[in-house]
Amino acid sequence: MATKIRLQRHGRKNYAFYPIVIADSRAPRDGRFIERIGSYNPNTNPATITLNFERALYWVNTGAQPTDTVRSILSEEGVMLMKHLQGGVKKGAFDEAEAQRRFDAWKAAKTAKVEKDKAAMADKKALDAKARFEAEQAKNQAKAEAVAKKRAEAAAALEAAAKEAAAEAAEAEAP
Known about the structure:
Elements: E1 3-7, E2 10-12, E3 15-24, E4 35-41, E5 48-51, H1 53-62, E6 65-66, H2 68-77, H3 79-91, H4 96-173
Parallel strand pairs: 1-6
Antiparallel strand pairs: 1-3, 2-3, 3-4, 4-5
């Protein structure tokens, strides 16, 4: 039986999430499967991937063929690297401890990069919010100045009209 590691589409229109499953290659995309090994949710930022690492590694070593998207997910999670390192151990290039040390170093570097990217996104979001707030304050200040100027002009016009009316009243009483 030819097995595939592939995504099943679940969710609603324009909001899909994908369970990662092991299925017979002849089975329909959303149909019968052998085992569910994880899920992929592209709707979050960054995309959320949950994966049973041991089972994914087992199926890859057994010969299950991942689809292109699943292959990139497995690579991102380190399953393909571990398979490669296990191949090196079988050939005698290095021992199991060395393979585990290399994998742990790769995983630590990847985690650090992801955390750095998340922090950069949060900083960018905070700077954007601050810039929007400052722009809004500048607009409000300009509006307040315009309103104050208009009120001052209206008050000056009202005062001038009152002086003119007083002058006319004084002129009318003078004869």
